[in-house]
Structure formats: structure tokens, C-alpha cells
Amino acid sequence: MKPYQTAMGLALAVAGGLVLFGDNSPAGDIAEPVTRGRATSAAPAPRAGKDAKPQAEVAILRLTPRAMLVGESGEATFASGEGVFQGQNWNPPPPPPPPASNAPPPAPVAPPMPFTVIGKAVADGAWEVYLARGDKTYVVKNQTVIDGTYRVEKIAPPLMSVTYLPLNQLQQINIGVLD
Fold this sequence. Notes:
Distance between the termini: 101 Å
Helix content: 10-25%
Structural class: alpha+beta
Order of helices and strands: HHEEEEEEE
Mean pLDDT: 83
Largest sheet: 4 strands, antiparallel
Oligomer: single chain
């Protein structure tokens, strides 16, 4: 046998002996409850601490009734925000709204050009520009209307002038220099 096993067996034997032959007599002292009331003349004087300063008597406060904490139904939840389960919001308050201005709203502006220039060519002395938008390809010349929204006004490389018809605003697309 190893030495620690021998030591453990000996400790077990000593513990068993104490259980069998130890003092099994019941304790004769009974702790009685102490009734505390408000400080009266018959009450003991306040206890003195290490510094010999008198310490005040400790008072235990009465419990708060359950109905007061969780409501009459007793079904308070975290979301209901009542009683003991009230939530606490630690977020900073939102910034105050900006002051209302009397300035008129800005004028509407045409959206950015949705077309990509694929290329350009001269056909019969007039310029043609090849545009792409999504899966569609357009071949446009002067005064061509695209989808009822844009009208080509002028093609003069390196720019093409296009009018956004709903707002009648002129926009330009860079189509590249002469080849």
C-alpha cells in the first residue's frame, strides 16, 4: 500500500471512532427569541464599540406588502413596468428637435443619370450614342425620348445634353472625346 492510502485509512478510522464514541449529549442551552420594541426606559443601554462610542439600536423595518410591489393581480412582468419589475432606461435622452425654419423647402432636383455609356458612333453624319440601363440597351440620337422620362437634346462629344422631362431640367453625360 502507498503511504497516502495508509494515511487516508487511518483518518477514516479516527473519524469513525469519533462518531461512535464522541460526546452525543444534547446541548442544554435553548435560544429564546428576543422581543424588541421601541426604546423605553427598561431597554438596555446602547452598546459601546471599540472606540467607546455608543452605537444606536438597530431597527428592522416592516416588509412592504406584496400587492403594493407587484399589483393586485400579482402577474407583474418585466414588460409591464409596474412594481418591483419597473424598467430603468440608461440611454441618454434624445436630442431636441431642430427648430422649425420658415425657409421654403428646396426645389426638386432631377435624379442622377441612370445610364451607362457603352459607346458612340457617327452614322449618316449624325452622332449615335449607345446607353445601357440594367438589362436594356438604347441607341439614341438627337431628340430621342427614352422611356418617356429623358429626351436627348444635343450630342456633341465629349458631352451629351439630356432633359429630365418631369422637372424639365437639363443634365449632361460625359460620352468621351472624339475617336
